[in-house]
Amino acid sequence: MKRLSKLVPFVFVGVLLVLALLPAGAPANPPAATISFVGGGTLLSPVSVDVAVHYSCLPPSPGEIDAFIDESGTAFGTTDPQPATCDGKNHSVTLTMTGGPVFTPGIATGTATVLNNAGAIADANEQIMIK
Q1: What is the CA radius of gyration of the chain?
Q2: Paired strand residues for 114
Q3: How confident is the model at residue 31 (pLDDT cuts 50, 70, 90)?
């Protein structure tokens, strides 16, 4: 029994060392899709605004990007669905929002969505500054 009581601390220390050397967890998988607005909007005319978005989506490709802006309920704009390259890499695209009745310089809320043909989807809902 005396021998066993001397062995227990060594076993305990050995178990602690093994646990300390194990990885803390599995690496996280990247999201299947991401999208965000970049910079502000550029006022092209009273009824159109350009906005840029960064996005990525995993295959299959092609995917789709949809977006709209709301300038405090006084002007709304949207773009036709745009094709998205879904290859897991980062991409940028400039979207021309058309609508009205009249866009003016100031703050607007932009909403953008990217999705691939397998159903992976990401949304962005951000304030953008129209200049």
Answers
A1: 26
A2: 65, 122
A3: confident
Tell me which amino acid residue 93 is.
V
27's CB contacts (< 8 A; 6+ apart) are: none
Residue type, 103: F
Paired tokens of 117: 């043909």
Q: What is the pLDDT of residues 110-120, one digit of tens each?
A: 999 999 989 89
**What are the start-end ranges of the E strands in the chain?**
33-45, 48-57, 63-71, 75-78, 82-84, 91-100, 106-115, 121-130
Task: Please state the pTM of the whole predicted model.
Answer: 0.74
Does 101 sit behind a cis peptide bond, omega within 30 degrees of 0 on the bond before it? Answer: yes
In eight-state DSSP terms, residue 21 is H
